[in-house]
Write a structure and sequence with these properties.
Radius of gyration: 27 Å
CATH architecture of the largest domain: 3-Layer(aba) Sandwich
Largest sheet: 6 strands, mixed
Strand order of the largest sheet: 8-7-4-11-12-13
Distance between the termini: 40 Å
Order of helices and strands: HEHHEHEHHHHEEEHEEEEHHEHEHEH
Number of strands: 13
Strand content: 15-25%
CATH superfamily of the largest domain: von Willebrand factor, type A domain
Helix content: 25-40%
Number of helices: 14
Number of domains: 2
Length: about 425
């Protein structure tokens, strides 16, 4: 027996295994595993952990059982390979390749059983009769024995002579999970689909003077802490993501503009002046410093960035504006866009059919002072604002951000 929760826990026992899964959009065993995991996580109150685990699995998908089981016989490094497939597929693999067998493990929490319904779509009387005869033959004792000998279980869940304890199988009927209803299946499939949409994210990084202040007890300035958060967050996004970076304060170009495009928005794997965009982002975060005499031209920057994302919206991706700041809010001596004006602009521009959400993460002792305005900005676009009192909270915030993909654009409903 094995605990599925332990295998999925990437911070615990999950570190010791390399998990491969069947694509739930192409394979019924993969879909059954996804449904079982969703139900188990919900009962245990581990929905956030499930989102993280699914995101990890999305980069380790295999299209069919044959390829998955063959890969399990290869053990790279110190991680033990674990795959999710059907019991019958394991039997077939071990029969075909006895020199490299795999061992069946059964989830302690229980599992869903696959069934194979016969559906007749023809209207021709002769075809209908042939289909009816075939269906009747499938339910005969002779056909049942043939199927059990091939590694399938009977309709009662009992194993035949093929699935023996000596060969590593559990002869007893596996503990069943309650089968999900239609709406649950549709919701879980939608969850998977939205989680695996590509990401298009533009980050606005506060470099105003207050970002040079120290964060007590850390040995870091606010700027260094925010840069650490951003770099850690960057690692959560797959290579196919599109990302970019603007910095903001006041008079960033010497002519009154409050923002500066540091890394243009585009694919992480794309080369920018001879350097991969992801490497450029990591390098830029490490080198950025606060502008000592700079104020916080947040509102003008948000309006400009949201306008650009709206004009360049991509339907096949989750379009997001990420703001990293010390949270004191807009502080622009030159005036510029007022709070109320920015809120009106966001409410008028936001389109639920082409959603662009604002995810705002603030850090430092001043962050709570701007909480009300930050929440208003985010909620105007179906987004969220977070106060990071501990730098280790960043992972949780990014997981929450990924969770919001599941409900966008109706997260507040």
């Amino acid at each position: 027996m094995i605990s599925a929760a332990n295998v999925a826990n990437v911070d615990g026992p999950g570190k010791k295994v390399r998990v491969l899964a069947l694509d739930p959009q192409k394979n019924s065993a993969g879909l059954a595993a996804l449904l079982a995991a969703a139900g188990t996580a919900k009962e245990a109150g581990q929905d956030k952990a499930l989102v993280g685990a699914l995101k990890e699995l999305s980069d380790q998908l295999v299209s069919d059982s044959t390829a998955l089981l063959a890969s399990l016989t290869v053990k790279p490094g110190s991680k033990v390979p674990v795959g999710v497939t059907s019991e019958q597929a394991i039997f077939a693999h071990n029969n075909k390749k006895p020199e490299s067998p795999v061992v069946a493990l059964y989830p302690k929490e229980g599992t869903l059983s696959l069934d194979y319904p016969v559906t007749t779509l023809a209207k021709d009387p002769q075809v209908l009769k042939a289909a009816a005869d075939f269906k009747q033959e499938l339910s005969s004792e002779a056909s049942g024995k043939t199927l059990r000998d091939a590694g399938f279980r009977g309709v009662d869940g009992k194993a035949g002579k093929a699935l023996t304890e000596a060969d590593g199988f559990d002869e007893d009927t596996p503990a069943p999970l309650d089968p999900p209803d239609g709406p649950t299946v549709a919701r879980v499939v939608q969850t998977w689909t939205r989680l695996n949409l590509g990401t298009r994210l533009l980050t606005l990084l506060d470099v105003s003077g207050t970002m040079a202040l120290p964060v007590p007890g850390t040995g870091m300035t606010r700027m260094q802490a925010i840069n650490k958060i951003a770099t850690e967050g960057l690692a959560l996004f797959p290579p196919g993501s599109e990302m970019g970076l603007w910095t903001f304060s006041t008079h960033m170009d010497g002519k009154g503009k409050d923002w500066k495009e540091v890394v243009p928005l585009g694919p992480l794997t794309e080369s920018v002046n001879g350097t991969l965009r992801k490497e450029m982002l990591v390098r830029t975060f490490a080198q950025l410093k606060a502008k000592e005499t700079g104020d916080t031209g947040l509102n003008d920057t948000v309006k400009a960035a949201y306008t650009q994302l709206t004009k360049t919206y991509k339907q096949d991706k989750v379009n997001t504006l990420l703001i990293l700041t010390d949270g004191a809010g807009n502080d622009d001596p030159d005036g510029g866009v007022e709070n109320a004006e920015l809120l009106r602009f966001l409410k008028q521009t936001y389109n639920p059919k082409r959603p662009i959400s604002i995810l705002l993460i603030a850090f430092g002792p001043d962050a709570k002072k701007g909480k009300r305005q930050m929440e208003a900005l985010a909620k105007a676009t179906g987004g969220e604002a977070y106060i990071a009192e501990d730098i280790l909270q960043v992972r949780d915030f990014f997981l929450r951000g990924m969770e919001r993909r599941l409900c966008t654009p109706n997260c507040d409903d």
